[in-house]
């Protein structure tokens, strides 16, 4: 029989039905195996973030990203939240250095079986207080589950300081997308429309499964890796004498198509592919493709979620989409077969 690692190249090793054999085959060092087993079993793993300069990076992030937030108003209860910093890696070398950590990428690559790359960062000055959710509705891959988050505490986080929460084992629960919950795939510029439908079904699922949330109370420098399907969020930040400086870096893995289920209904022809997805380490875009075959541009075009103003402009949305589809399929056919006159460009 083939070695267990080679049987399903399109399934993350930590999700493989042959995981026990993979974990026991001696190719992982003890720490890699511990992390892989925790992710396989629980959907999360805690590590010490391998960055000797973390204190200095944390101090720089606090000063350069968050010093000018209205802290006094928040502490006095005049405002409910302080804005997080999205994709600060583009301008901030400390955020980029944490996201680009080579040891973390190597660890993730070993346990998933494909090369990991960071594509997004979020930095928080206080607890996100985000309702529990799964990242998969924002960040999906085909083949599936080649995505994870690495959340690192840039200071000690205790009860009351809006800690991260998670539901152990929830990465094994079924994953629901628009088509399962009856949510129409929205226009590209209305991604948030009826998103509460997901909150509702996830809440019902958690109640049905009877799993209680666990708070993560890390010391500075501890990190939690979560699998794409793990239900997680942020607890209320009740102690306003304390901040909750932290960074999450989101990772995908090589040789996948990357898409946004919130914007998609694939078999109705709408797929929110992630185009121009950056590799944080280089800033270069990562292309969509599977098994070494690039997703054809015409397919990316024809399945792209339309903007709502396609209708407002007077065009019938469906007719516009059909015209686009005809032109794109013509291009695709010519690309594949070399057949067909170039009459439709
Ligand atoms: O930091 C938190 O409280 C939650 C972050 C989160 O849910 C995410 O990045 O997906």
How would you concisely characterize the structure shown here?
This protein is an alpha+beta fold and 345 residues long. The chain is 30% helix and 17% strand.
Question: What would you say this structure looks like, in words?
Answer:
It is a single chain. By secondary structure, this protein is of the alpha+beta class. The chain folds into two domains: 32-293, q2cbj1_9rhob like domain (Jelly Rolls); 306-337. It has helices spanning 19-23, 30-42, 54-66, 71-75, 93-99, 102-112, 178-181, 196-209, 297-303, 309-312, 317-337, and strands at 44-48, 85-86, 116-124, 140-142, 147-153, 164-166, 214-215, 222-227, 232-234, 246-253, 257-259, 277-278, 285-286, 289-290, 293-294. The strands form five sheets. A six-stranded antiparallel β-sheet has the order 1-8-5-10-3-2. Strands 7-6-9 form a three-stranded antiparallel β-sheet, with no helix packed on it. It is globular and about 60 Å long. The N and C termini lie far apart (51 Å). The relative contact order is 0.16. The structure holds 2-oxoglutaric acid (AKG). Residues 122, 124, 127-128, 130, 135, 149, 151, 164, 232-234, 246, 248 line the site of 2-oxoglutaric acid.
């Amino acid at each position: 029989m083939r070695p267990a690692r080679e049987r399903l190249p399109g399934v993350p090793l930590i999700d493989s039905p042959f995981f026990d054999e993979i974990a026991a085959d001696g190719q992982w060092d003890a720490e890699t195996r511990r992390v892989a087993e925790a992710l396989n079993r629980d959907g999360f793993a805690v590590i010490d973030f391998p960055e000797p300069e973390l204190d200095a990076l944390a101090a720089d992030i606090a000063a350069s990203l968050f010093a000018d937030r209205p802290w006094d108003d928040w502490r006095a209860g005049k405002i409910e939240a302080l804005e997080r910093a999205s994709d600060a890696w583009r301008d901030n070398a400390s955020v980029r250095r944490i996201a680009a950590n080579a040891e973390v990428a190597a660890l993730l690559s070993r346990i998933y079986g494909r090369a990991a790359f960071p594509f997004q960062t979020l930095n928080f000055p206080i607890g996100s207080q985000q309702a529990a959710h799964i990242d998969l509705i924002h960040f999906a891959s085909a083949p599936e589950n080649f995505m994870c988050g690495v959340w690192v505490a840039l200071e000690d986080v205790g009860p009351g300081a809006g800690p991260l929460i998670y539901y152990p084992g929830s990465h094994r629960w079924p994953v629901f997308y628009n088509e399962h919950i009856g949510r129409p795939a929205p226009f590209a510029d209305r991604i948030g429309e009826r998103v509460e439908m997901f909150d509702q079904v996830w809440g019902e699922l958690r109640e049905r499964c009877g799993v209680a949330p666990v708070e993560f109370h890390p010391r500075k420098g501890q990190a939690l890796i979560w699998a794409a399907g793990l239900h997680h969020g942020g607890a209320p930040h009740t102690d306003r004498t304390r901040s909750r400086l932290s960074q999450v870096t989101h990772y995908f893995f090589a040789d996948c198509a990357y898409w946004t289920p919130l914007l998609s209904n694939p078999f109705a022809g709408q797929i929110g592919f992630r185009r121009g997805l950056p590799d944080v380490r280089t800033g270069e875009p990562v292309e969509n493709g599977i098994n070494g075959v690039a997703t054809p541009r015409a397919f990316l075009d024809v399945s792209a979620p339309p903007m709502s103003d396609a209708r407002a402009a007077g065009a019938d949305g469906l007719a516009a989409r059909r015209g686009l589809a005809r032109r794109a399929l013509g291009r695709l056919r010519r690309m594949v077969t070399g057949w067909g006159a170039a009459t439709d460009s």
